Amino acid sequence: MNYGKINYTDIANGPGVRVSLFVSGCRNKCEGCFNRESWDFNFGKKFTISTLTDLLLALDKPYISGLTILGGDPLEPENLPTVTSICRTIKTINDSKNIWIYTGYLYEDFQNLELFDYVDVVVDGKFIESEKDISLQFRGSKNQKIVDVKRSKMENEVKLW
Fold it and tell me: Is residue 105 part of a domain?
């Protein structure tokens, strides 16, 4: 899996100060996407053990609330194994850090993936430029949902964060 960048102090993509990993590769190609270069699966650098170590060290800081993975799209089949491994590793080492995933796909269509055993919140749905609303917290367009994954799994229906 490739990634475009890592933000080590991000306050835009989830609550608190976060580490954000922008993966490469997206087939949704939403009109008006803020990160078009990430559509290319070859964009950026290879994610390696060294990259994972950097993420883990960054997440170990007490002021960091958690990790956000976005892109590109973390749920693309080419990204999913590595993203799942990253999330599993983080939750095994430090379950107090929350994990947010941004995807253009719908949570309901992918809720049974192993990945969601480790994810706390997913922001789902394609970005739709005609539904863009800059007043929305942690999402770009009105159609997107912020799903509380743990509660949704517990209650067996989609629950919003």
Answer: yes
Nearest in space to 110 (alpha carbons), one of 159, 76, 160, 145: 76
> For position 80, which CATH number holds?
3.20.20.70
Number of domains in the chain: 1
Condensed to tens digits (0 to 9), the pLDDT of residues 74-117 reads 999 999 999 999 999 999 998 999 999 999 999 999 999 999 99
> CB of 123 within 8 A of CB of 145?
yes
Across all residues in the chain, what is the average pLDDT?
Answer: 96
| Domain limits for position 34 | 2-155
Q: What's the length of the chain?
A: 161
Helix (H, G, I), strand (E, B) or coil at 86: helix
User: From CA 56, how far away is CA 99, in angstroms rounded?
Assistant: 13
Whether the CB-CB separation of 149 and 119 falls below 8 Å is answered with yes
Buried b / exposed e across 105-133, counting CB within 10 Å, b at 16+? bbbeebbeeebbebbbbbbbbbbeeeeee
The answer to whether position 161 is within a domain reads no
Q: Specify the DSSP class assigned to residue 105.
A: S
Q: pTM for the complete prediction?
A: 0.95
Which residue bears the tokens 């950026």? 44
3-state secondary structure of 80: helix
